[in-house]
Write a structure and sequence with these properties.
By secondary structure, this protein is mostly helical. The protein has two domains: 13-75, Orthogonal Bundle (Arc Repressor Mutant, subunit A); 80-219, GntR ligand-binding domain-like (Four Helix Bundle (Hemerythrin (Met), subunit A), Up-down Bundle). It has helices at 13-27, 38-45, 49-61, 80-103, 111-120, 130-145, 150-170, 178-192, 196-219; strands at 35-36, 65-68, 72-75. The chain has a three-stranded antiparallel beta sheet with strand order 1-3-2.
Length: 220
């Protein structure tokens, strides 16, 4: 009989470090344009410089860190060109996920999206709360996950921290929770109704609105 028990696979040290650095960038602990000093960062994390370099290389590949020759590594800056490119990539991935969900017969999964929307309504009196942006992120992560496409999920995963930075910028642009709730709820219901064209239009309108809000906040 084949045993169901096997070795417990633990994350490697570079993976753990990369996760912590990613969170530090997303939370604003590391500010855009800040230089990361390898020696002090290794001491702060209590790790050797080898796995730290590997972790930082991963974040460089994800676009969260930028390498400047003879200067070092810096946290990415959210300028207009970068923001537009982030939303361009989202516009390629998320609508494809929506159409895959509907055409593959998995639209019933979208009930989980409505559950996230319900959680958003709890912040009716606090629309700029960072937890709302976290729920917004969860909605879109679930959406792409429902496509069951490993490559779409992987590509979207590399964008998530950058998207989170954008959401952090835009969260102060909402005076009420109603509009944000309605946008997400309408997308979920269109998927549940099996209407990929409507879901696509609603999703793209939602992302276009988000892009305008982020650019407005960044440009001051």
């Amino acid at each position: 009989m084949t045993s169901s028990l096997g070795p417990i696979v633990q994350d490697s040290t570079p993976t753990i470090i990369a996760r912590r650095l990613r969170e530090a960038v997303a939370s604003g602990e590391f500010t855009p344009g800040q230089q990361l000093q390898e020696a002090s960062l290794a001491a702060r994390l209590g790790v050797s410089r080898g796995p730290l370099r590997e972790a930082m290389q991963r974040l460089t590949q994800e676009g969260l860190l930028v390498s400047h020759r003879n200067r070092g590594l810096f946290v990415m800056k959210l300028d207009e060109a970068t923001i537009r490119d982030i939303y361009l990539a989202r516009g390629a991935i998320e609508p494809t996920a929506v159409r895959t969900i509907v055409t593959s017969g998995w639209r019933a999964d979208a009930t989980a999206l409505l559950e996230v929307v319900d959680e958003m309504t709890a912040y009716d009196d606090d629309p700029a709360n960072p937890d709302v942006s976290a729920l917004d992120m969860r909605f879109h992560e679930l959406l792409v996950g429902m496509s069951r496409s490993p490559r779409l999920i992987l590509m979207h995963g590399t964008l998530l921290t950058q998207v989170r930075l954008c959401l952090a910028w835009m969260q102060g642009s909402y005076d009420t929770i109603d509009y944000r709730v309605r946008e997400h709820a309408d997308i979920a219901r269109a998927i549940l109704d099996g209407d990929p064209d409507l879901a696509d239009r609603l999703l793209m309108a939602h992302m276009d609105d988000g892009l305008r809000r982020v650019l407005k906040m960044v440009q001051g």
